[in-house]
Amino acid sequence: MRNMLVSDIMTRDPFMVEPDTNLLECARKMVRKNTGSLLLVKGKEFYGIITTHDILWALIKKTEGDLSEIKAIDISPKKKSIIKPDATVYEALQKMKMKSFERLPVIQGKEIVGLITIKDILNFHPEIYPELEEFAQIKEQEEKLRRISEKAERTDNEGICEECGKQDILQRFNGMLVCEVCTSP
Q1: Does the pTM exceed 0.90?
Q2: Which uninterrupted H or E stretch holds 27?
Q3: Residue 75: which of 33, 125, 22 has the closest Cα?
Q4: Sequence-ordered list of residues with C-beta below 8 angstroms from that of 166, at least 6 positions apart, any chain
Q5: Residue of 43 and 29 predicted with greater confidence
Q6: How far apart are CA 8 and CA 154, in angstroms?
Q7: Across the strands, what pairs with 126?
Q8: Cβ neighbours of residue 87 under 8 Å, at least 6 residues apart?
Q9: How far apart are alpha carbons 1 and 91 in whole angstroms?
Q10: CA gap 180, 162 in Å, rounded
Q11: Phi (first) and psi of residue 108, to 5 degrees
Q12: Which end of the chain has fewer CB atoms < 10 Å from its terminal CB, N or C?
């Protein structure tokens, strides 16, 4: 694995859309092509990547708009991580683990030449499954820490409402700590 290059196992013709493609069209293409991601490319220049997770996030968080009105580039993660075709598969795997990504666009100069995914690596190197198990455990630990942090934030605001006396999550309103019911007119 340390001598095999990314270009040896990458997907050479990944599915792509233009950056200004709307999310509804992106979702349709993902379903038609049975893929979990699309590269955002104009000409041969790489602009970003969009996944099913990004579309689900937009569906939940951007409820004021229709998916046909939101452009892919607007919700594509701003942090991009790429790899060159002459990098080793081991380097790609280390980068994926470090960044917690499951796929990396393969870029030569400014042009997109392919995509390498965890699935591509596993197809050629099933013996690295234990290493990927570690990757999954790291992601799980990050998720647990996030949930604990969210809970700590919520419990900091939990208490007895100064207006009605109920135990609830409180917020400051007119100089008092009150529950959501008591903040409504």
Answers
A1: no
A2: helix 23-33
A3: 22
A4: 160, 179, 181
A5: 29
A6: 49
A7: none
A8: 5, 6
A9: 9
A10: 12
A11: -120, 110
A12: C
Distance CA 110, CA 106 (A): 10
> Distance between CA atoms of 65 and 155, rounded to whole angstroms?
32
pLDDT for res 21? 95
DSSP state of 127: G
Contacts of 101 (CB under 8 A, 6+ apart): 81, 95
Residues 170 and 98: their CA atoms lie apart, in Å, by: 38
Going by C-alpha positions, the residue among 61, 58, 63, 60 that lies closest to residue 75 is 58
Question: 155 pLDDT band (50/70/90 cuts)?
Answer: very low
Distance CA 31, CA 36 (A): 8
Tokens of 42: 């104009």
CA distance 54 to 60: 10
Per CATH, is 6-124 categorized as 1.20.120.530?
no
Closest C-alpha among 20, 54, 40, 19 to residue 115 = 40
Kind and range of the H or E run holding 156: helix 129-156
Residue pair 6/84 in contact by the 8 Å Cβ criterion: yes
165: left (phi over 0), alpha (psi -120 to 50) or beta: left
